[in-house]
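Sharing a chain and its predicted structure for anyone who wants a worked example. Both blocks are below, sequence first, tokens second.
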Amino acid sequence: MNTGFRLGRIADIEICVDWSLFIIFFLVTVSLGAGVFPAWHPEWGAALIWTTALAAAIFFFVSVLLHELSHALVGRAQGIEIRRITLFVFGGMAQLEREPSSWRGELLMAIVGPITSFVVGVVCIAIASLSAGEVQIDPNDPLRAYARLGPLATVMLWVGPINILLGVFNLIPGFPLDGGRVLRAVLWGLGGDLYRATRWAAGVGQAFAWIFIACGFAMMFGVRVPFLGTGIIGGLWLALIGWFLNNAAIMSYQQLLISRSLAQVPVSRIMLSRFATVSPDTSISTLIDNYIMRTDQRAFPVVEHGRLLGIVCLEDARRVDPSVRTSHTVGTVMTPVHDLTTATPEEASADALRALSQREVNQLPVVKDGAVRGLIRREDILKWLSLHGEHAAAT
């Protein structure tokens, strides 16, 4: 389920923004506007300080988007389709349609992100230097030099080092960070086993995650951690990053195991083969009384003369006003077949699960030669995994 909104498309890649992004956007803007930039420019007015802080926050998230776009474009060049990039509270994520087919593709796609961040950082620092002109920075009193910077140089001088730090952070060899993917690619290339390489890289990722959590709590209790310092706010953020990395490492490995378990299982083995269908002239009231309320189906294929016309679900019926449900028919509210994603009985259940996730639906009609042969549902896949998944993943 989406928890944000669609920002637009770049190079046919959907750019989405999660609502959680606004938390860090607000915190970055406030920390710059209330702390960093007033210290750099005590003579600036409030309007100029906050405008510069807002611009710096926007530039920072544009650089995060560039980082993720580099992954997507290189992945596409390696034959890995990436349809969506989501920006959220801890940065961004390019959502892969499938795992890379070779360790070289994985390595190239992973390493380009940090390289992009380093390049953006160096370019920003160069722009700041050109914009500032002849400014000598005294190591003992750097704020005096910062006070002479204009708004553009100020923004670039903050965004540049932040991008370099972002590149360094992403090179930490803990899956699913970019460095962890580089580690997995190397292990995959050396051993030839993607799943074993993922297990080791995810384990390293969890180890780093627990180090972050431990350091974060130590900082919150007043311990000065080398290179990180001390403090409640910094410690809390470090602990949260560790928690996020630990969960991401576990989930990434589990998703790979699920894909492995379902890769050789055809949809026909898991799909619901006994199901109810409705005709397009069925009234909404009949759909509710005789189908939705009397079966455990949430969606019903709409069929006429043996051909699939579309699908109608509980949500479609709910949107129809109760006063007109007897006069409105299924054909007026169904999703037509040309707007549906369908599966075939022979295709791998892993592909069907991927399609369910991409379309954010709970079921797909299974179609062959225009006729509906079944429904493949999330709950049926989960049921199969609970009964066979562990054994299938181990084989």
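Comments welcome. The two ends are 32 Å apart (CA to CA).
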